[in-house]
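[job 4471] stage=fold_predict status=RUNNING
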Amino acid sequence: MKNALLLLLLAAALAGCQNVPLTGRSQLQVISEQQETRMGLASFQEILEKEKLSNDAAANARLQRIGMRIAAATGRSDYQWEFKLIDNDKTINAFCLPGGKVAVYTGLLPIAQDDAGLAAVIGHEVAHAIARHGGERLSQEILIAGLSVATVVATHDSPNRDLYVGLLGAGAAVGYLLPYSRLHESEADRMGLIYMAKAGYDPRAAIGLWQRMAEAGKGKSKPPEFLSTHPADATRINELERWLPEALNYYRPVR
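[job 4471] inference complete, writing structure tokens
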């Protein structure tokens, strides 16, 4: 039973390996893109039912214009792209759910400042969807859950069974899932630079955006980087500077 379960988990992991566009990184995917897209749409609808949408016509038109340019740059015309502006000046955030469902909070607009800054935000968020980071994270959690079951089966006679399972959970969070969350953020930064450049927005604007984001976050309590789902501000900016030459190869100014 124990060996069969472990072999099943291994087979699922091997069968679910795919490559991320642009970066070529191998990733684990044990759910289909169709399933992931359905979950993304359901979550998006649930969020929008609870949030107030902005009625600022100019800001909405700006978001649509920039968003659709970046969506076109991804080449994923099969996605049902949506860009929504949520009226919340206190929230400095944006997100993109599987299938191309993007939301930006109005609190982020002053930090984005201009079209290129907003393009950097949207490029980063869109990259999460294109790279299927949501499905990958869910696949990782499914695998960890399976390993926990395997641990229970393997140690069912051990007085330390609960300890082993607990340590597996903690070890997976800090040693596997959190680093992958940081990897996802970094990968979205790199891909986002390319998408905004392909869409005609200067990728150098992303440096200024994240510098302003870091300034806005000063004084707020943050966990150490190894316990965080996001890279440290300095790490992120250094990586963006390193990836700029690659992105600039794609840059042609908006006409």
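[job 4471] summary: The first strand starts at residue 17 and ends at 19.
[job 4471] exit 0
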